[in-house]
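USER: For my understanding, would you kindly supply a protein sequence with its structure tokens?

ASSISTANT:
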Amino acid sequence: MLRAYKYRIYPTGEQKALFAKTFGCCRFVYNWALKMKIEAYKQEKRTVPYKEIQERMVNDLKKENDWLAEVNSQSLLNSILNLDTAYKNFFRNTHTAGFPRFKSRKDRQGFQCPQHCRVDFANGTITIPKAKDIPAVLHRKFKGVVKTVTVSMTPSGKYFASVLVDTDIQELPATVPLRDATLGIDLGIKSLAVCSDGRTFDNPKNLQKSLDRLKLLQKRLSRKQKGSANRGKARIRVARLQEYISNCRKDNLHKITYAFTHDSQVRTICMEDLNVKGMLHNHHLAMAVGDVSFGMFLTQLEYKCKWYGVNLIKIDRFAPSSKTCGKCGHVYKELKLSERSWTCPECATFHDRDFNAACNIKEFGLKALPTERGKVKPVDCPLVDDRPRVLKSNGLRSSCL
């Protein structure tokens, strides 16, 4: 299994200068290759393959620019490979992947070293081509073969090394889904996650708590003269606060997803297939949706479920999980987003909106399993790929619990 281990590194002044050169050279090669692809498509209506770009870079670009030889050549080739992958992803699915953009020195900086990398736990150093014995905080040990090392620099000036390792760890096989070991999760803004077993995980609202301080620091930054040393100091203060908010968010999500995947009573998790990108288009909720970070939560839960043998079932995003009565199956179509609780007009059952949705998500997920079809009678909710737009009620006989 491939696993990545991220470490904080403390390069020397000479190593920082080398990293800065490598950042700039990789950015220059990436933009040069992207411009070549764009011009070739406009003039000749063709796509320039990776091999052709590689040959032009080695034979022409490096001869014209001697300073490209000062950095690792494999990092330059890897930046071209990343561009080729991004270009293919765009034409494979234009809705999920955008067109590759030119890199800027103001963006996050990084480069990859795919060969001749070594991690020394005894001395606490990482070695990459042309930079030996970089001091690092190796807080986690691993056993395996180092595949690549990605060196990055945050806007606040911190350096990190992400080590991709081919470990001997095997993924745990997923067990057969059982009703008693199934958990339904409803994600929201007020509460980050509400579970069908009654557990609720609050939304820490990290950005909202630090918003006043962030506004103040950004106002001070806007008043500094461009190019001055004080502006650089103010920019770092803003970057550090934004990095602190991001770290708090990631830490909270890791703890919640760890609790889900390490619960011995939960072997199957049912969730909605959320359209996070579409939710961000709502300007009234965009900041709140971005702060809670549904996309990061789903990403972490997916790979952790694969690691620890937990079944992850995604139901259709159009399924009326909140509007369906968990007792009689009636679909209350008049339910508004502002209503956090409602009473079923058919059976007069009082429902908490989020808890009722979590229970229904669990039932919908079990409905999608071949072993449970015919036993569960929720609102018809086939697999995600079917994408029905009209859902009819069959009457739910089993209770939410």
About this structure: The first helix runs from residue 13 to 44. Residues 372-401 have pLDDT under 50 and may be disordered.
